[in-house]
Amino acid sequence: MRFKENWTETKERFAAWWKRSLTDRPLMRLVARRKTLPDDLEPVDEFETPRERYTDVDGLVKMFRNYCKSHTFMAESFPNLDLNLGAGSLAIYLGSDPIFSWDTVWFKECMDDLESCEDLKFDPENYWWKTHLDMIKRGRALSRNEFLINIPDLVEGLDILSAMRGPQNLCYDLMDVPERVKYFVEQLDDLYFKYYDPMYDALKDDEGASSFTAFHVWGPGRTAKLQCDFSAMISPGQFRDFVVPSLRKQCRMLDFSIFHLDGPECIKHVDALMEIEELHALQWTPGVANPPGQDEVWYPLYDKVHEAGKGLWIFIEGQNIHDLVECSKKLVRRYGISGLYLLYEEMDQEVAEELLRSAGRKFL
């Protein structure tokens, strides 16, 4: 880990966070811009097409190495590169076609009718599966272990079925053919690990540790982010019926799990999520035009997570050192240190150093 000075300590602190046993300060992600750019930045060609922007592993690795050279990874931040083919690449392994744009990847619907659709099966020869696994392996080799390559954003369950079937169609399916929905979700439960395991094997370190995409989490074992963004459109009863059983299975197959809760429409499912004993932590995304993660309006949500004994992942927006310290203080005083992971926007070196000094005093 060329670009991370305190990597051993960081791993120990992540392990303690998962166990909710931190004692000195919360887990913190602090990435600081260096005051001056280094002289050894590598020349990188611009991507010519949206597809290249996602699949040019050599270019992506060069760009990220330049980023590492121009930033400092302080506290528990660590250099980790995503090589995603969209959020939900499991869909393209199973027959959907990707639609590349500069900002994201969409997936074409490929299931016409759940009543007549064939079973979903693992296909080791699927073009996009082979391509993505090769990308991951090449990224790992090119990284030279100077930074981590994340397990990609496979996604699971109803979100994958929604991508392949179409969200509106799936809403009708839940009412018209609920047993067929469950049938395919159960297949996806098994297929998830058919694809997760080779990715994990390609990326784990010598001790079996891994990092998972997008949310800057590392764990000393099989680690993953779970989600169900489609749950914004279903009732709490449907969530318990169609989603919770799958989540329990996944959590039991993983060593460390964090659920990505996306937007106020999904808060209604928190009670059910907190009943999943095997789930370790919750990550909260407030959504566009809503108050940021540190806002007190979200405290009732955080209270439920804290009371259930789960870890809290909270992103704090802003650059003003006084505001950053004050809102961090409030969170620490309310939820303690042991299970709290505070993530901050990229900031100037001086601000990051002052914030870390304040944290060393437990934000008192």
State the main characteristics.
alpha/beta; 364 residues; two-stranded parallel sheet; 14 helices; 8-stranded mixed sheet
- The string of secondary-structure elements, in order, is HEHHEEHEEHEHHHEEEHHEHEHEHEEH
Q: What helical percentage do the residues reach?
A: 40-55%
**What characterizes the major β-sheet?**
8 strands, mixed
Secondary structure category? alpha/beta
Beta-strand percent range: 15-25%
Shape: globular
Contiguous uncertain segments of 5+ residues = none
Mean pLDDT: 97
Number of helices: 14
Radius of gyration: 21 Å
**N/C terminus separation:** 33 Å
What's the total count of β strands?
Answer: 14
Summary?
43% of the residues lie in helices and 16% in strands.
How would you describe the overall organization of this protein?
There is one protein chain. Helix 3 runs parallel beside helix 5, helix 6 packs across helix 7 and helix 13 packs parallel to helix 14. The protein has 14 helices and 14 strands. Strands 1, 2, 9, 10, 11, 12, 13 and 14 form an eight-stranded mixed beta sheet that branches. The protein has a two-stranded parallel sheet with strand order 3-6. It has a two-stranded antiparallel sheet with strand order 4-5. The chain starts with 6 loop residues before the first helix and ends with a helix. 43% of the residues lie in helices and 16% in strands. A hairpin with a 4-residue loop joins strand 7 and strand 8. The chain has 364 residues and is an alpha/beta fold.
